Amino acid sequence: MSFDKFRYECAVFGIFGHPEAANMTYLGLYALQHRGQESSGIAASDNEAIRLTRAMGHVADVFNSDNLAALTGPIAIGHNRYSTAGESRIANAQPFVIDCAHGQFAICHNGNLVNASELKESLVQQGSIFQSSTDTEVVLHLYARSKKSTVEDAIVDAVSQVQGAFSFVMMTRDRLVAVRDPHGFRPLALGKLDDAYVVCSETCAMDLIGATYVRDVEPGEILIISSEGLRSIRPFPPAHLSQCVFEHVYFSRPDSVVFGKSVNEVRTNLGRILAREQGVPADVIVPVPDSGVCAAVGFSDESKIPLRMGLIRNHYVGRTFIQPQSAIRHFGVKVKLNPVKSILDGKRVVLVDDSLVRGTTSRKIVKMVRAAGAKEVHVRISCPPTISPCFYGVDTPRRSELIAAVKTLDDIKEFLDADSLGYLSLEGLMSAVGSDSSSYCSSCYTGQYPVSFPRDEATYLQLALKLDNKGEAAATTAK
Ligand code: SF4
Questions:
Q1: 355 partner at 20 to 30 Å CA-CA among 124, 266, 292, 439?
Q2: Which residues of 213-234 are buried (b: 16+ CB within 10 A; e: fewer)?
Q3: Ligand 1 center to 395 CA (angstroms)
């Protein structure tokens, strides 16, 4: 059972110069499990050969002491996957490892390449044979076919041909390479663990292994880490920054620093601003756990209305459970959440959550809170209405399934059966992320896309398009 949220994307991790590189990568992936739960993999190099273990499932299911012990060497990269491009199957699990004219090479990717299908078509016509249905494999083919004479030049050649969102962690037999796209859509942080270098999607992975956050890999930067140290190159032309604001709203763990800012601080601020914009007389603030907790703390701080955990989450729900044959109403939600009657009974409740996608789960939660005796239920969402799908590495429903894209505010309130409904404004969201708000992507709230995408994709996403003469959509509005 999944809650009605945008799905996570992927996690990447890499380490250079550590005697237990594979074990550190395992722990890093463990801390980053929230970003992808379909498959997990680690590739490690002992400077002679790259070895790989990958399988479907969670990190703790995929790895054991035997398969980790086989991943010897001081360099390793790892990946947790949630499929945003390509199906969920082992052939799509990363890292991908190849052997080509430039030697052995491994890659992990977080993001989505918007021109992957065109590149793939052209590569197939030239004779390439693809083994997966992911966009990431395109980069391997571009790298393997590159006529450049050095490994680094071949990497630059390959990544310069792809467009969209990419945080790559790559490995050859003797070096680690980290690449962040020039728009900076997805996060990628650099840290140190004694003499070893670490790169990863979120800093919570560094915390677990005792590494220190140094800085972000900057948008448009390629870091090459070898026995000669760390080198930075910037081969991409300058581009408008578009860091994913939804990382702060929902995706990243609150104990991470993302895009140089504490996620917890930003998320709590979202709640404070929401309380100023959408305050309502009430007796208690109740977060939808766990996603709404930080914003609810901020809402409570600002409104001076007490925060209570009126909904308790069962953290031990497995991926599968046996559903009874007799129909239990709203069984799926009840398995995960249970209301606390003593907190809710007779109260005017503000229910705080971080996002509303289809609205189906929120509707069940409102019903559950009412059934526990709440006198009034006011729903507050700590981001603006989500009206457009994402192209940049996040799994989103089609536009027609996004409740805010197809219903008015009043209609949504009726659908949820809430006494009132309030969203954070776009200005409020941007002021919470700080003064550099123009450096963020907010396409899912605005329908304005910073990187153009092919016509077929636009049709799939049901966007109203303004096509340029190449048949590509320039920045478009979905409204
Ligand atoms: S469209 Fe939304 S989810 Fe996708 S990158 Fe932009 S802000 Fe993030």
A1: 439
A2: beebbbbbbbbbbbeeeeeeee
A3: 10
What is the whole-number distance in angstroms between the Cα of residue 57 and the centre of ligand 1?
26
DSSP letters, 314-334, are -TT--S--PPPSS--TTHHHH
Q: Over the stretch 144-175, which tens digit does the pLDDT of each residue have?
A: 999 999 999 999 999 999 999 999 999 999 99
CA of 215 to the centre of ligand 1 (A): 22
- Report which protein residue has its CA nearest ligand 1's atom 5: 244
- For ligand 1, atom 4, the nearest C-alpha belongs to 390
Cis-peptide into 95, omega within 30 deg: yes
Angle at 336 between CA 417 and CA 390, to 5 degrees: 70
Ligand 1 binding pocket includes 394 (Cβ within 6 Å): yes
Residue of the nearest CA to atom 2 in ligand 1?
444
pTM above 0.70, yes or no: yes
Residue whose C-alpha is closest to residue 443's, from 408, 407, 396: 396
- Report the pLDDT value the prediction gives residue 78, as an integer from 0 to 100: 98
Pocket test for ligand 1, best of 244, 252, 399, 437 (most atoms within 8 A of CB): 244
In the predicted model, what is the mean pLDDT of residues 335-340? 90
Beta bridge partners of 13: 78, 200
Ligand 1 pocket residue status of 453, Cβ below 6 Å: no
Q: What is the pLDDT of residue 474?
A: 35
Say if residues 18 and 54 touch (Cβ distance below 8 Å). no
Of the pLDDT bands very low, low, confident and very high (cuts 50, 70, 90), residue 321 is low
For residue 248, report the distance from its CA to the centre of ligand 1, in Å.
11
Centre a 10 Å sphere on the Cβ of residue 334 and count the other Cβ atoms it contains.
14
Residue 241 in contact with ligand 1 by CB distance below 6 A:
no
Task: State yes or no: is 383 an active-site residue.
Answer: no
In residues, how long is the chain?
Answer: 479
Task: State the pLDDT at residue 334.
Answer: 79
pLDDT exceeds cutoff 60 at 285: yes
Residue 456 has pLDDT above 60, yes or no: no
Residue with structure tokens 């909904």?
311
- Per-residue CA distances from 388 to 152, 277, 451, 464 (Å): 37, 23, 14, 11
In the chain, the amino acid numbered 247 is E
Residue 322 has a pLDDT of: 62
> What is the rounded CA–CA span in Å between residue 216 and residue 429?
22
pLDDT in tens, 376-392: 999 999 999 999 988 88
75 ligand 1 Cβ < 6 A = no
Cα 247 to ligand 1 centroid, rounded to whole Å: 8
